[in-house]
Give the backbone structure.
Amino acid sequence: MTEPIKQSEKVAVITGAGQGIGKAIAFHLAADGYTIVIADIREEVARATAAELEKQGFRAGVVRTDVTDPDSCENMIKGAVDQFGRVDTMVNSAGISKPGPSLDVLPADWQRMLNIQLNGTFYCCQSAGRQMVKQGWGGAIVNITSVTAQAAFPQRASYCTAKAGVDMLTKVLAIEWAQYKIRVNAVGPSHTETEMTKTLVAQGLYDVETVSKRIPMGRMASVDDIANGVSFLCSEKAGFITGQALYVDGGYLAYGYF
Ligand SMILES: NC(=O)c1ccc[n+]([C@@H]2O[C@H](COP(=O)([O-])OP(=O)(O)OC[C@H]3O[C@@H](n4cnc5c(N)ncnc54)[C@H](O)[C@@H]3O)[C@@H](O)[C@H]2O)c1
């Protein structure tokens, strides 16, 4: 099937878009011409982001979504289609962070991390993929991973494991769904200024100056740095790119000296 309408009417569903990286992605994709569906577990925050988008003249909707629940992820895609008729792009940015010594991590905390970061990403990819296959003209999926998919961080066993899993999930879906013209890629941020990192700083779990020194470009990422990578991978410019992880990290992973 050929795509029936123009780029400006494409629809992007973004999880975790109530705040942080997901919210910045919403604004960048809106500027690229997408109608945006904010899918966040916190409905009031999602509604506030959608209202901000609409105030700036963009088209936006909200579907409250808990990515750990496969039915909720199906409902997210159904809600997007009911409101706007189609889904062209799915970005998985919902996430949490809960560092702690591996000797003490509780099974419930381990499972919650994997449920949100890894299982949730799979459920959303699956629901979006089914819709894209049904539509017949393909699509783009971008999963937000992390430099921790490649580099081990202490006290983050579940987080690193989940993100490494998302990197591999991205590759598997890419090769399975290439036949449907669905491209699946990942963007892996290094430390980025968001509520998530502000909380870690407040808990004394890391220090911005020390982190910035470890990054060759000398600073943490902004949410716009990350959203630019997502915007590129969703665009036609990335039309032959699939199964890749683009690390937006100021040189963090390349650095191997002292
Ligand atoms: N901030 C960083 O330094 C950094 C670095 C690398 C990767 N990441 C990843 O980027 C993504 C976004 O992180 P952020 O810093 O913007 O975080 P954030 O805490 O600012 O925002 C995360 C959003 O996800 C939502 N969310 C949480 N659980 C959910 C669920 N079960 N269902 C639906 N939504 C849910 C929250 O309500 C929130 O709006 C995460 O996957 C995170 O792991 C962040």
Notes: The longest strand covers residues 182-189. Helices lie at 20-31, 43-55, 70-84, 107-135, 157-177, 195-202, 208-214, 223-234.
